[in-house]
Amino acid sequence: MKKQELIHLHGLLAEVCNNYEGRTESTVEREKYETLGVRPTSIHKSKTDHKEAVFALTEGITTAMGNEEQEAEPVSAAAD
Q1: Residue 77 confidence (pLDDT)
Q2: Per-residue model confidence as pLDDT tens digits over 22-65
Q3: Over the range 39-63, which residues count as b (16 or more CB within 10 Å of their CB) and which as e?
């Protein structure tokens, strides 16, 4: 994947993250992402930096969605 494509993907994932948090009560864990200091607009950063940021965002989003899914699973009722 080219650096420009990776930056575009990074921007899309940042939008997905913001949209997900806005539509649900869940929050995405961004500590790892924030410590990297790489934003989609950081075009001077290396391809590797953007790749790490994409992985950190993806991990945060999927973890939040997984946690939400576990909370939404119905509890089976005891048979009468």
Answers
A1: 55
A2: 999 889 999 999 999 999 999 999 999 999 999 999 999 999 99
A3: bbeeeebeeebbbbbbebbeebbee
pTM, to two decimals: 0.83
| Domain boundaries, given as residue ranges, for the chain | 3-61
- Nearest 5°: the CA angle 35, 37, 41 is 150
The CATH architecture to which 3-61 belongs is Up-down Bundle (1.20)
CB contact set of 36 (below 8 Å; sequence gap of 6+): 49, 52, 53, 56
Whole-angstrom CA distances from 46 to 8, 16, 61 are: 14, 22, 23
